[in-house]
């Protein structure tokens, strides 16, 4: 919450100067781009005649129409309630994106044909690899954070070396190091476990820092109160400190989850058939790259949205004790 | 009267680096005794009572609490702490738990008391500090005075042998001070063993069996309230009392 003032100010999008300025800006932008050759030109044919020959007049007419539409849209949305505003803007942006994709002339039947395999093999592998990795990474993070905060020199040294190393190397290199390096030491490791190990170690390092700062954000008085009741370290950590640190930890951890989902595509370099890998190979045969890439993109996005929703739920759960 | 020593402090010294916070402190607290510790800021009052449940470590001398000697290799510090209640200046309630849970977790997790019984005890003590109706709220929803009374109830739920108070009223608005002091006076009347660091001299006069004056890490003077306030022996005590009673 930004905790807005209780005095209502005039809605920004209804101020004449704002509308004028927006109008001018949009007009200028679209004057700079020549849209006469696009479907927008076709759409304006009744007014400007043959689009290709309309010249400056056509360009101006198109820019003017777009600017008027845009400003009307903004002003009208200003009258709606918050929830409706959010819904309308989301819908409009989505439609714009669809219009953009339409310009690629995608073959929908091809997408529909490949989608089931993309989901059952690719998406499934992506989810499975990321879910296991995030669980291991969280476990590493708690251990790492406690070690980094401890007064035990050995634990601190190991933990700080670990975070420094795995945050310092590119993830791609870590994937190779584990997949190609471990066999040198005599551990033959499959592609999927190698990928999971690399992701866990890398994200565990980032999350160690997140957990450490979360634990540190808790007032010392909480430790003292907990100890004075007689709780030992484990109880204090599990029941008193971590639950209070979670609201601090969850937003950046949600970030990590979402980012891991997409970074899991890096393990395709060692031949794991996850979503990105399949999207590239399935499109290759028939040169329909765009179809597969966009399908994969939509699947990634859909997953991320699911995670965002889950995160919002958890945050709401932990906001209970803050309500006055 | 054969008195049982709950806290026995012999020749205790403590250092923060090169700075000596406590110097040869001697003090005994017997069962049922009510002790008030006062003294100027920085004289080591908080440090001393925090040594009683080993939130702080002392470097020299002996502290025996409830028959257990405190030292840095002890394995049973929990045994000491569950018998020593502590109330802090800034309440330190657990903000993520309701008032009721704040009072229930100690008995449940330390003594293995079943949940229903813990709830009954908690409600009983919340009743005693006169806020049973706030049981299902979160600490942030309560006033300072109410929070401090919850903190007292939370400690009482562990049924401690002694209660330590570290300036329990000094973070409170004036009109909330009295509600907390009344609660503490009630406890004292019921025979609870108490050690209070406080500057509330009226409280000290009314309930203390003994008042202890500390200065620069030493116990300068101790005595019954009548003698202590009526006829202080040391110059430093007189100066402190004249300053604090002026207001
Ligand atoms: N962690 C610490 N490290 C170093 N010095 C400390 C530490 N804690 C306290 N001190 C010092 O020890 C002395 C005693 O502190 P203490 O908190 O016991 O005083 P106090 O009598 O409770 O004072 P007040 O009335 O202000 O609460 C002070 O001079 C303080 O600066
Ligand atoms: Mg103090």
From TrEMBL, chain A:
Transmembrane stretches, start-end: 17-36, 56-79, 86-104, 124-147, 154-179, 185-206, 294-314
A GO biological-process term: amino acid transport
PROSITE patterns in the record: ABC_TM1
Domain of life: Bacteria
Keywords: Amino-acid transport, Cell membrane, Membrane, Transmembrane, Transmembrane helix, Transport
Cell location: Cell inner membrane; Cell membrane
Family affiliation: Belongs to the binding-protein-dependent transport system permease family. HisMQ subfamily.
Protein name, entry field: Amino acid ABC transporter membrane protein (PAAT family)
Highest classification ranks of the organism: Bacteria, Pseudomonadati, Pseudomonadota, Alphaproteobacteria, Hyphomicrobiales
TrEMBL record, chain B:
Source organism superkingdom: Bacteria
Gene Ontology MF terms in the entry: ABC-type amino acid transporter activity; ATP binding; ATP hydrolysis activity
Residue intervals of the ABC transporter domain: 7-241
UniProt keyword list: ATP-binding, Nucleotide-binding, Transport
Matches recorded under SMART domains: AAA
Transmembrane segments: none
A UniProt-annotated Pfam family: ABC_tran
Similarity-based family: Belongs to the ABC transporter superfamily.
Protein name as annotated: Amino acid ABC transporter ATP-binding protein (PAAT family)
Species of the source: Shinella granuli
